[in-house]
UniProtKB/TrEMBL annotation:
Assigned keywords, A-Z: Hydrolase, Membrane, Metal-binding, Repeat, Transmembrane, Transmembrane helix
Gene Ontology cellular component terms for the protein in this record: membrane
Protein name: Peptidoglycan/xylan/chitin deacetylase, PgdA/CDA1 family
PROSITE patterns listed in its UniProt record: CW, NODB
Pfam families, per database record: Choline_bind_1, Choline_bind_3, Polysacc_deac_1
Signal sequence bounds: none
One example GO MF annotation: hydrolase activity, acting on carbon-nitrogen (but not peptide) bonds
Amino acid sequence: MNIDERNLDPEEIEYQRRRAERMRKRREALRRQLFIRKCMRLGVIAFLLVLIAGVGGYKLISFIGGKTKSGNAGVVDVQAKTPDDPSEAARQPIRDADNMEKLAAPSTGWQTDDRGTWYQNADGSFYVSGWKEIDGNQYYFDDSGYIIKDDWLEKDGEDFYFNADGQYDAAVKKPMVALTFDDGPGKYTDRLLDVLEANNSKATFFLLGQNAEKFPEQVKREKDLGMEIGNHTYDHQILTKIDIGNVSSEVSQTNEAIKNIIGEPATVMRTPGGAQNADVLAQIGMPVVLWSIDTKDWKTKDVQNTIDVTLNNVQDGSVVLMHDIHEFTVEAAEQIIPALVEKGYKLVTVSELAKAKGITLENGKSYSYFGEGEQTVE
C-alpha cells in the first residue's frame, strides 16, 4: 500500500489503512455487480434464442407435415357440406404471442383453455377461420381457432346452429318473421330504421308513390340498409273500386317514382286494404303479399295493443302488418323488434322469408303467410 508511514503518527496510519480497505471492498463489490449484470444479459439472450428456435421448429414441423400429409386419422379434410358457405378451416401454425399458450397442449386432439375449445393437429398446427369435419361432425373455427358452441353463426345471409358440443346441427332452423309497414315513408320512418339497424334486422316497406316523392331520403336509406321496397299504389286507391284500366297506372306510376329515387322499381306489391280479385292481380303483374297478422295499429292507436297482438301471435313464417306513418306504431315497433330478436327470431323481408321457406314468388299471385298450416289474425 502506498502510505509513507515515516511522517505519520500511528492513528493516522491506522485511518489510512482502514480507508484503503474500504476502497478495495467497494471495487470488489462493483466487479461482482458487473459480472452479475453480464450473466443476466447473456441469460436473456439465451432464452430468446431458445424461444425463437422453438417457434421456428414448429414452423418447420408444420411445413414438413404439410408436405407429407401427416396428421390425425380422425381428421377428414373435406369441403364444407353447407351449400352456401364452402370456406374450409385452414391449418394455422403457432406463431405469435396470442397463441403461445397452445404450445403447452399435452397431446393431439381437442383442447380446452380459458378462451374456449380448439383442435391441435399432429403437426402442431390448429384450425382457424372456417368449417372442418372431425369424426363425422362439422365444426366452425373462428379466427383465433376456437369453435362456436351453443350459438348461431350468420354467414352470407344464412344461419347455422351449433350445439353445446360445438357440432353443427342442420335440423335446428332459426324462426323467421317479416315485419311490414304500409303507407310510408313519413316523418317517423327514420326512427323505425334506427331500431331495425341497431338490431341487425330487415323489414319490407310498402310505399305510396306520393309519399316516396315527399321523403326520397328515407327511401334511399331503406334501400341502403337492405330493406325491401314494395308498391302500395300511388295514392292509396282501393283497386277493386276503380276502373280496371287505372289499376296498372297506379302501379306503374308508383314504380316509376321509386325507380327515380333508388334506380329500380319495387319488387313486390300490396293492395290497399287487401282489396283484390283475379282481374286486379292480372293488371298488377307483380307478386302481391298481404299479411297473416293485422295489428290494427291505425285503428286502436294503442302502443301496448300493437305490441301484444304481435308478440302473442307471431310464429315462424308470419307476416305482420303495421304503418310507419304513425308515431304510436313506431313506438310499438321500437319494443317489438328487440323483443322478437331476444325470442330468437330473425327479422327478414317478405322475399327473404319466401325464399327461406322454398316458395317462389310469382307475378299475379297473392301470398299472406309462409309458415306451417294457416294463420289469420285480424
